[in-house]
């Protein structure tokens, strides 16, 4: 599975406190290992982004 981080996400991520950065990293690792875990609330997007998913 491929994933891409939007540049605005990366910019916002850099501004997060260390505690929140750790949570985001953990969720990203979970997503890479199993993107359909219930706790991630993984769902398809609609409209022009319907080929993408969000968690």
Structure overview:
The chain is 45% helix and 7% strand. It has helices at residues 7-15, 18-33, and strands at residues 43-44, 53-54. The chain has one domain (7-54). The protein has a two-stranded antiparallel ribbon with strand order 1-2. It is mainly α. The longest helix has 16 residues, at 18-33. It is built from 2 helices and 2 strands.
Secondary-structure map:
Layout: H1 7-15, H2 18-33, E1 43-44, E2 53-54
Antiparallel strand pairs: 1-2
Question: Quick summary of this structure?
Answer:
This protein has 55 residues and is mainly alpha-helical. The chain has two helices and two strands.
Largest sheet: 2 strands, antiparallel
How many strand elements?
2
- Low-pLDDT runs of 5+ residues are none
Provide the residue-averaged pLDDT.
88
How many separate domains make up the residues? 1
Distance between the termini: 14 Å
Number of helices: 2
Radius of gyration: 12 Å
What class would the helix/strand composition place it in? mainly alpha
Shape descriptor reads: globular
- Provide the succession of SSEs: HHEE
Strand order of the largest sheet: 1-2
Strand content is 5-15%
- Percent helix range: 40-55%
């Amino acid at each position: 599975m491929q994933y891409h981080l939007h540049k605005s996400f990366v910019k916002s991520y850099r501004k997060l406190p260390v505690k929140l950065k750790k949570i985001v990293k953990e969720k990203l690792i979970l997503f890479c290992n199993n993107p359909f875990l219930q706790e991630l609330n993984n769902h398809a997007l609609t409209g022009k982004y319907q080929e993408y998913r969000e968690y």
